Please model this.
Amino acid sequence: MSPGTRILEVRQNVLKKNDLLARALRQRFRDAGVFVASMVSSPGSGKTTLLEKTLTLLRPEFRVAALVGDLATENDSLRLARSGAPVRQITTGTLCHLEAAMVETALEGWNLAGLDFLFIENVGNLVCPSSYDLGEDIRLVLMSVTEGEDKPLKYPTIFNSADVAVITKMDLAAAAEFDLAAACRNVEAVRPGMQVVKVSAKTGEGMDAWLDLFKSRRAAMKRA
Amino acid sequence: MHELSIAMSIVDLAQEESRSRGGLRINAVHLRLGALSGVVRDALLSSYEMACHDTPLAGSQLIIEDVPGMVYCPACAASRPVRTSEWFCCSVCGAVASRIVQGKELELVSLEVEE
Model:
């Protein structure tokens, strides 16, 4: 330390603002009785396809909505809107992840109490979203069978920050020579005990278990 | 790469702190950075310079203290260092150990300010 200077103690989390906002959002979601799930993955892992199918299948029984983050274009929100559910696009410009403030802004004017489920699709990125709490009840990390079994080992931080791992495009598993046991071992290595769900949005394989995941977690939240 | 966003949050927080204490000139910012925080040290250092540009923190230094990752081993009932973030197990007995007790830090510890 150079002469003429002194130390001021701060001791604050750098992402304090985001964390506080996320906490407030979580409380708002809880008060409104809406269960919030966020999805993270690399680009092209099938988030939007799976989400479109999920919204469509949940809609007869539940009131669902989605927020979708991308750097640019409204393509994903247009695709998701085909499900009939209310959808809003968050375009981040050059930012590689969603932050709690963007979620808060995107929710403006929405009656949360009129929803059972809200899905938040993050920007396709397995690195940056891990640091930002969005106030979600559950964070899902997706990997598709075409990406290779070692995704969890390459991106341990995001797998460690998520609650459930989802293996997508299971209909292509044989063609991609996907080693499911190896993938599960790798998930277990970076996040021991993590639940793994296998789905194909295309064929419907595993979709019942996938939907049950949300229904049961929401029911548990309601009881709490 | 989200280090630029993180660096901008550091600059904002440092400015707020200095303003609330009378607008002191900041020469250096001390940060604790966890090995499991998902933030890359070198990328953060170069982003910091960019984030400081055109702010009262221009020319200030970011001083990083690395915090190693630690997990709790239920078998040993003790905290153990994580050798690699690819394998969350106890470095002593090898048991699975997933509860992170240290290493996610992204903490602005202190500011060096002019008297």
The helical segments of chain A are 16-32, 47-58, 75-81, 100-106, 151-154, 156-161, 180-190, 207-223. Strands of chain A lie at 5-13, 35-40, 64-70, 87-91, 117-121, 138-144, 164-168, 195-198.
